[in-house]
Design goal:
This protein is an alpha/beta fold. It has a domain at about 40-65 and about 75-235: P-loop containing nucleotide triphosphate hydrolases (Rossmann fold), CATH 3.40.50. It contains 8 helices and 10 strands. It has a 6-stranded mixed beta sheet with strand order 6-7-8-3-9-10, with helices on both faces. A 4-stranded antiparallel beta sheet has the order 2-1-4-5, covered by helices on one side. Helix 6 links the parallel strand 7 (about 170-175) and strand 8. Helix 3 (about 110-120) crosses helix 4 (about 125-135) and helix 3 runs parallel beside helix 5. The longest helix has 18 residues, at about 185-200. The structure holds adenosine-5'-triphosphate and magnesium ion (MG). The site of magnesium ion (MG) has 4 residues, from helix 1.
Length: about 300
């Protein structure tokens, strides 16, 4: 159930204060935050480090409760739910991509993706098929049997995205889902998230510092010191415009094509090894490091 206007998320006058502890003063992480997101909406949240983005996402995902104000998701007022109801809400309604991935280290990529499906009693065969399909969609099918400690940060991130989609959640909350990715993987991840958004009507909230990632969304909320200070319409420009940083990856694509056509390795040409999985650049120096910083380039 959602409200008359069809909003999947309604945040009203939300405050979150973290109490003072010892010498640490009270932190007002969110102040008077109100907004609505319609079903199927795609919202990017931008703001400097410490501005309250993860705090807000945690509240929308029922991982934390506001100090004051209300948050209604899919017709459920999260401040009125019991612990048990909140746990159910998190398992069935929300797909969370954490800033720190939070994969289970003892499980393989496939088992990590299957885990949320176990919580809602999906049959083992169906869970396995879906996990493998999702891993394929994020370019991680070859790493299905690997544990997180044998994956790069970007690979763990892609597994975390597959896991978030496992139960076909109504709301996907992604905290910097492209922060560790090169342009090719970034495009693959955003295409997957937006495809799910289009096909299944999933509502998408993405915290990002990257303007191109934000350009897949229809709205950008700007947050500064715990307040929303701006709301911009994007018109999903990144769906039709090439990523300006993608040119950097042209050499990697050319090397991939050559390897495919000759069946040869690339070691003589690229002294630093190509990472496993898809979309990696051949040289460590060319590897993307600049898309997860505070480099808002549209301001
Ligand atoms: N558990 C906590 N206890 C006390 N203060 C906290 C806690 N979690 C976050 N904060 C503070 O709340 C503010 C908002 O933190 P938050 O993690 O939401 O920022 P953010 O916008 O996600 O930053 P980043 O871009 O660095 O991830 C910060 O000042 C932070 O220090
Ligand atoms: Mg954060």
């Amino acid at each position: 159930m959602s409200d008359a206007a069809g909003s999947v998320v309604i945040a009203e006058k939300v405050y979150r204060e973290y109490a003072a502890q010892g010498d640490a003063e009270e932190v007002k992480a969110l102040r008077n935050v109100s907004f609505r997101i319609p079903k199927g909406g795609r919202v990017a949240i931008k703001g400097e480090s410490g501005s309250g983005k993860s705090t807000l996402l945690n509240l929308l995902g029922g991982l934390d409760l506001p100090s004051r104000g209300s948050i209604v998701v899919n017709g459920q007022d999260l401040t009125n739910l019991s612990e048990r109801e909140l746990a159910r809400f998190r398992a069935t309604t929300v797909g969370f991509v954490f800033q720190a991935f939070n994969l289970v280290p003892t499980l393989t990529a496939r088992e990590n993706v299957e885990l949320p499906m176990e919580a809602v009693n999906t049959g083992a065969a169906e869970a396995k098929d879906r996990a493998l399909a999702l891993l394929e969609a994020v370019g991680m099918e070859e790493r299905a049997a690997h544990r997180p400690n044998r994956m790069s940060g970007g690979e763990q991130q892609r597994v975390a995205i597959a896991r978030a989609l496992a139960n076909r959640p109504a709301l996907v909350l992604a905290d910097e889902p492209t922060g560790n990715l090169d342009t090719k993987s970034r495009r693959a991840v955003m295409r997957l998230l937006t495809e799910v958004n289009e096909k299944e009507g999933t509502t998408l909230v993405v915290v990002t510092h990257n303007s191109y990632t934000a350009g897949y969304c229809d709205t950008t909320l700007r947050i500064h010191r715990g307040r929303i200070i701006g709301q911009v319409t994007n018109r999903r420009t990144s769906e039709t415009t090439p990523d300006p940083e993608e040119e950097d990856d042209a050499a990697a694509d050319a090397a991939d094509a050559e390897e495919e056509s000759t069946g040869s390795g690339r070691d003589e040409r690229a002294p630093t090894s190509k990472g496993p999985g898809t979309g990696r650049k051949p040289t460590a120096g060319a590897r993307k490091t600049d898309d997860d910083d505070d480099d808002d380039d549209d301001s």
